[in-house]
Amino acid sequence: MVKIAIMGCGVVGSGVADILLEKSEELSRKFNKKVKLARILDIRDMKGTPYEPYLTKNADEILNDPKINIMVMTIGGEDIAYTLTKKALEAGKHVVTSNKEIVAAFGRELVETAYNNNVRFMYEASAGGGIPIIRPLNICLASNDIYEIQGILNGTTNYILTKMHRDKMTFEEALAKAQQKGYAEADPTADVDGHDAARKIAILSSVAYDKFVDYRDVSCTGIRNICYEDLELSSANGFKIKLIARSINKDGKIEAVVEPLLLGEDHMLAKVDSVFNGVLVKGSYTGDSMFYGKGAGKLPTASAILGDIIEILTGSVEKSLPGFVKEKAEMTTSKQDSFRFFVRIWKNSISSEEMAKVVENSFGKVAIYCGESENNREKAALITGYLSREELDKKIEELTQSLNIKVENVIKVED
């Protein structure tokens, strides 16, 4: 018999419990092993719920029970989750988690601890929610040299950007809507400043490139400076703004960045809207492979956890330590010399013809799109030719010498 315990019966943990209670007999038949939910750790009483008969408030009842084979870690945060996970592995229990914080911060140590105790530490649900991505990178794409990963890895920010554009909302209004729907936390910092996506791209990069990528080495820019005008004017030019987490493996050195980008409307990730996530993997043999689905939520994430449990039920074990446990990646910054940029400006009390002349003096002949006027201020945007950052800063300085033109935002264009 395989007994499973769940630590943390919140959104994801309760989803795992629901699936196990509904599907345990079916799983038992399918894998010829009796599968049973044994314990649920939670500080609440949860009286009158299906979880009540399994509840304990004492972690030691799980850790010290030799009959419990698999522990599901769905407690959030780092400290408690890490401590309990390590104790479970050292006690000879497999651990499956959706907790990206402990995977990003302690993944190397926990994978090695599991290996030394002949058990598994599995984390499919930590980087893509319900999207199968860790297993494809480890198995299906194993013959490829993966050289780039691009992803929309945070459903909260994707929902906010989608809502801002479709409903002409400010960032603050769309964030409040996301919080109302439960997509954003009361403190949304990790989401809107890009730290959540940084952890996830670090996890995916470590698996794909077989070298440990520390999430603290990922350059982060969030979406706080994006406004409706950026979305409106970029759309008029045939682009969509997305918060993209990206890593590139070039000559054994890794560049990893989270930042808003303008994507052409035919880019695969440009079509990923609302709370959905997408991961684009570029491999030496497969070319572009796209993974798409719900990146969060009770049942999608629980489904990914069950996938890891099923892999354990089939008896697979680590035959050797992954490379990312043994070697830390050498990080680098972009070697690309020049980019195109979206530059949003406003003009005050000058004609469009005068503005075009001022812009041409700085940037040469570029298309300018003008939006709706507000309070005698006309919104406008241009997309530059290829420029280095240094050249861009110089041209912006020239442009803003006009008292009637102000640069309000600059966003890189992904080609």
What is the CATH T-level topology of the largest domain?
Answer: Dihydrodipicolinate Reductase, domain 2
What is the CATH superfamily label of the largest domain?
Dihydrodipicolinate Reductase, domain 2
The average pLDDT value, as a whole number, equals 94
CATH architecture of the largest domain: 2-Layer Sandwich
Number of strands: 17
SS field, number of helical segments: 15
Main pleated sheet: 11 strands, mixed
Query: Which parts are unreliable, with pLDDT below 50 for 5 consecutive residues or more?
Result: none
Content of β-strand: 25-35%
Quaternary class:
single chain
Q: What top-tier CATH class of the largest domain fits best?
A: Alpha Beta
What percent of residues adopt helix (DSSP H or I)? Answer: 25-40%
Radius of gyration, in Å, reads 24 Å
What's the overall geometry? elongated
How would you summarize what this structure contains?
This protein has 415 residues and is of the alpha/beta class. The chain contains 15 helices and 17 strands. Helices cover 38% and strands 27% of the residues.
